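Posting for a labmate who doesn't have an account.
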Amino acid sequence: MILDGTIKSTRDASPAFDTLSDLEVAKIAAGSSLVQIEGMQQLAPDNEDALFLLVQAWTGFGGAFIEDEWEQAYDRGDEDAEGHHATRASQAYDRAIRFGTLLLEQRWPGFVAAQKNDETIKAYLARVDDPEALLWLGAAWLSRGSVAAERPEIVAELFVGVALVERSVALKPALAFGLGYAMLGAYHARSPDAELAQAKELFEKSLALTERKALTTQLLYAQNWACQAHDEQAYRALLEEVIAAGDVLPAQRLENTIAVRKAKRYLGAPRLKRCGFGGAR
């Protein structure tokens, strides 16, 4: 009973983490928190708050910190480090998916069995009404596809992640400052011959929800849609908007700080070259 109360209090207090601006403090704190929550879940394996926190924490740590190191390794041409950090990120998302699967199976049995095809997973998700769990589990699923794109078995399962996020957005569009729309936009802009028009609409919906204050959307918009559409003007404008924004959304300060750091790097020569754009101006 005491442990359950501690875990609930931890979840209730977790939004305070997003107000940090020091990335080194945030990275250390996030790693320590993961270990602590893992321990609490071990002692209370059926606690739904603990399972959710682990889905959210592993997904967030993978995206905010491990993928950042992966991208830096790519940009400096260090193939060994790039492979190392890609594996680390994939393992983080695997762990998030494991805990998310346990959560859904506990509350709505049949999640694993429903992963046969798009029709079966959507039929299953129609009875799931937890937009937060769906969003973060879907984020882990889609993010794993990005860092493990060379693994066909992972790519073949991306439809599950898409369905999870779509259901979350249907239930609560503004959750996590429109992140669901942005993630779906990134998916639909996964290649030059993907659904770029649909991706653009999704990104614009995400921007409208927060009056362009949640800067992760602009970052993903540039990184995915503008890059794949070969629109250098939009790419630069979106990233420069991120860099110039300032502290526009205190409740999302950490995510915005990460977005600014990445935006500066994305305007560097390696990322411009990756999109087929000219050199730095």
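Reply:
Got it, the structure tokens are right above this. The two ends are 59 Å apart (CA to CA).
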